[in-house]
Amino acid sequence: MKGEKIPSYRQRLGYHSGLLGGIGMLASMALVITDVETRDYIAEAKAAEQRVFLNQVMPSSLYDNDPLKETLTLADPETKKDVLFYVARKDKQVVATAYKVFGYGYSGEIALIMSIDRDGKVLGVQVLSHKETPGLGDKIEVSKGNWILNFNGKSSQTPDNTGWRVKKDGGIFDQFTGATITPRAIVKAVKQGLDFFNVHKTEIMDKSLPADPPPPPVKTSESDNSHT
Amino acid sequence: MMSLHEYKVLARDGLWDNNPVLAQRLALCPALAITTTATNGLGMGIATTMVLIITNAVISVFRNVVTPEVRIPVFILLIATIVTVVDLMINAFLHSLYTVLGLFIPLIVTNCVILGRAEAFASRNEVLPSAVDGLMMGVGFTAALTVIGAIREIIGSGTLFANASSLLGSAFSFLELVLIPDYKGYLIMMLPPGGFIVMGFLMAAKQVLEQRAAKKAQEIQQTALMQQT
Prior knowledge:
The structure holds two protein chains of two kinds.
Chain A: H1 13-57, E1 71-76, E2 81-90, E3 93-105, E4 108-117, E5 122-129, H2 181-199, H3 201-205
Antiparallel strand pairs in A: 1-2, 2-3, 3-4, 4-5
Chain B: H1 4-17, H2 28-33, H3 38-61, H4 71-93, H5 95-101, H6 112-122, H7 127-157, E1 159-160, H8 164-168, E2 177-178, H9 187-190, H10 192-228
Antiparallel strand pairs in B: 1-2
Helix pairs in contact in B: 1-7, 3-4, 3-6, 3-7, 4-5, 4-6, 6-7, 7-10
C-alpha cells in the first residue's frame, strides 16, 4: 500500500464513503444470506438440545406426547419474566411439567431446569448453565456430584419452609465446604419455582388438550371461547 | 509470487518466532480466560484459526481498493461479518462444538491478533500468502492455548483433554486421560491467576530456549573463526 502511487480519485471524500457503504452492503448481504440459510438448522439443533435436558429431569417413559410442542407461558409478577412450562402427558392426562428457574450464585446467573409431577413433587433438577468457581461451586453439576439429586421427591410441604434452606441456615440441604452461596442460591431458586408452580397448579394440570387434529369448526356462539 | 523459503519463514514466524501469544503477547484475554482445560484451548484455537484464514484472505482481496484513511473501519466491518457468519455456521452444523465455544466465538471479533494480522500482513500481501499467514498464526495461537490449557488442567484437576469427545467427536475419546486419580485439584490453576502463572513460565521457557540457541550459534561461529586463524 505504501510507496505506491494512489490515484487521485481515491482521495476524494465520495470514494471513501462509497467504499464504506459498499463494504457495508456486502457485509449485510452476507449476514442475511447466512441467517436465512442456517435458521432452520439452528432451531433444530436447539430443540434436540432441549430434548436432552428434558430427558435428564423427566424420564421419557413417563409421557407419550412431545412436551417441547406443548407449552404454556405464565407471567411471574415477582421476576417480571415469562415462565415457559413444558407439559408432559400420558394417555391425554397431564402427568408432569418442566420449566426453567434461575438463581443468582457466587458469580452470576445459574440456570436450572426442574420438573414437577401431578402431586407437586420434584421429579428432577438439573443445572443448564452456571459460572460458579470450578472445583468449589461446580459440584452442583450432576457430572461432578450427586448433590442436585437431593431435590428429587421433595415438595413445597416436605420439608416445610424452614427446611428449604441449606444446613448452615437451619434447613435440610447440605452446603459444600468452602461454598455456601451456590447451594443457597439453588435451594432458593427451586423453592421459588415450586411456589410459582403451586400458584398456577390447576392452570397447568388441567390444561386442555391442544387442538390436534383441529376440531371441525362449529358455528355456535361459544366457539369463540373454546380456544382461549 | 512468494518462494517456498518465504512460506517457511511465515510458518516459523507464526509457530515460534512471532507466536501471537508467547512473542507478540496479543489476545491474552481469550488465551487466559478459557484455557482451563486443554480441550477448551484447542477449541478456541481452531475457531480462531478458521476466522484468521478467512479474514486474512478476504482483506487481502480488498487491499487494492481500500484507502489508508478508511481501512480500519473496513477491516473491522469485514472481520465482524466473517465472525458472525462463522458463529452461525458452527451453531447450525456443529452444535455440540457451539455449546462448548458459543460464548467465545463472538469475542473473536475483538481478538487483536485478527486485526493485527490484517493490518500488518494481509493488507500488503497477495491472497495466498495472507491465507498461509492466517493459518500459521492460527496454528501458533492454537498450540499456545492448548499447551497452557494442558498444563493448567494437569495441575488443576489431574486430567488431560477432558471432554475432548464433545469437541472432536467420540472417535477422540481416547485423548481423555485421568493422569492423577482421586486428585483433589489445585484450584488456583483453574482460576485466572493460574493462567498468568503458566503463561509467565512458558514465556520464560521460550526465552531460555532462544538464549541457549543463540549461545550455541555464537559458539559455532567462534570455533569456525578459530579454525580459520
